Amino acid sequence: MQNNKVVSREEWLVARKEHLAKEKEFTRLRDELSQQRRELPWVKVDKEYIFDGPNGKETLAELFSVRSQLLVYHFMFGPDWEEGCPSCSFWADNYDGIIQHLNHRDVTMVTISRAPLDQLRAYRKRMGWGFKWVSSLDNEFNRDYQVSFTEEDLKGETYYNYAMRKSGGSEAQGISVFYKDENGDVFHTYSSYARGLDMVNGAYHLLDLVPKGRDEADFSFPMAWVRRHDVYDAQ
Q1: What's the burial of 148, exposed, middle or buried (CB within 10 Å: 0-12/13-18/19+)?
Q2: Which residues contact 209 (CB under 8 A, 6 or more apart)?
Q3: DSSP 8-state class, residue 69
Q4: Are 28 and 235 in contact (CB under 8 A)?
């Protein structure tokens, strides 16, 4: 139940301008934080990873295509799963249509999961997506970037989101960034997990604008309401 005060247009304008000042300060601080993110140190990737994709076997360096920057979305889709994670599917709905724009800013974006390529292809077709999706089933990429866990890992705490914690399952979501220099050397520049992925989800930013916000307080966990887009009830 919304309990907002109802005021005149003049009073509303005063309150809105006060909030606008805070929004502008937040924007300035966000720009500073983004610059600091770009200035973080890098780690050279010395390990070779071979992925199974639509172009056959590809190395991490080859996933860049003709560009120097690579965004990887770590999509939760385990080898024994019948379909992809609904929350990751929600995120994919948000980034699927912008890949072409990223390409024109020297950025390649790919999605990586441990499920076999045939399963990824079938699920991508079902959901109507067009982004490139490759399988890391035969390499240690997901484990090295802390988004997949073994049965032994799950017996205790696992390292996720830069801390040891009890894992909720064998797969977790994340986003990682890589850079390839003129010599072909690849560097890991950034990874983010959990709430750090909010920046990728335009739908959440739109929900933050409306009176009820994300409206998730009454659920067993925040994203319990999310469904794959082809199974929602008609509204």
Answers
A1: buried
A2: none
A3: E
A4: no
Six token digits for residue 197: 């992925």
- Cα–Cα–Cα angle for 5, 6, 11, nearest 5°? 95
Q: Which CATH superfamily is domain 43-202 in?
A: Glutaredoxin (3.40.30.10)
Specify the amino acid at residue 60.
L
What crossing angle do the helices spanning 117-127 and 86-95 adopt, rounded to 10°?
70
Q: What is the 3-state secondary structure (H, E, C) of 27-74?
A: HHHHHHHHHHHHCCCCEECCCCCEEEECCEEEEHHHHCCCCCEEEEEE
pLDDT for 167 equals 80
Q: What is the pLDDT of residue 3?
A: 87
pLDDT at 218: 93
Query: Which pLDDT belongs to residue 1?
Result: 60
Q: Which of 135, 85, 88, 133 is nearest to 115 (CA)?
A: 135
Comparing CA positions, the residue from 201, 194, 193 lying closest to residue 177 is 193
Q: Which of helix, strand or coil describes residue 118?
A: helix
pTM: 0.95
Q: How far apart are CA 104 and CA 69, in angstroms?
A: 11
pLDDT means over runs of 10, the chain (235 residues) = 89 98 98 98 98 97 98 98 97 97 98 98 98 98 96 91 90 98 98 95 96 94 95 84
Q: 184: which strand partners?
A: none
